[in-house]
Design a protein that fits this description.
mainly alpha, 66% helix, 0% strand
Length: 148
């Protein structure tokens, strides 16, 4: 297994540099902007795991992915990892959880949906801040609760 601390995981910085976009200071991003980014980051991590576990038809891959990419699963993950968060990470999560979203939960509880939005905000924050190693470490621990 590769040592995660020796891997260059700051994709956000590569994108900023190559596409010549400045980005914003971290405290200027709204919690919903962070969640918007984090939704994709979380999904790509889960899809990467699912696809690399087994080469299967897309329909089967999607069924496996949905086990992890839904508000209830994401709520369980954040509940499990919340005690591991730093004060700053906890603040980002809570800002995302408490943000008023224009969209609503579809077939999910409002509480789970809000927690999932908070998790996505945390994912977006860590990604944009160049802390993918921290994000991967937290999600690895959190995913364990779904696999039980």
């Amino acid at each position: 297994m590769e040592d995660i601390n020796n891997m260059n995981l700051d994709l956000a910085a590569v994108v900023r540099n190559e596409f010549e976009v400045s980005g914003e200071p971290m405290n200027r991003y709204s919690p919903l902007a962070l969640a918007f980014m984090g939704d994709s980051v979380y999904e790509i991590i889960i899809r990467s795991i699912v696809v690399q576990e087994a080469n299967r038809p897309a329909g089967q891959l999607n069924k496996i992915k949905v086990k992890y990419v839904n508000a209830a699963a994401q709520a369980k993950i954040i509940e499990y990892i919340e005690p591991l968060l730093t004060d700053e990470e906890s603040d980002v999560y809570k800002r995302g959880r408490n943000a008023k979203s224009a969209t609503s939960a579809k077939n999910q509880s409002v509480n789970d949906y809000r927690k999932a939005t908070g998790l996505e905000a945390l994912c977006g924050y860590l990604y944009l801040n160049g802390e993918m190693d921290r994000l991967i470490s937290l999600l690895k621990k959190g995913i364990e609760v779904i696999e039980r």
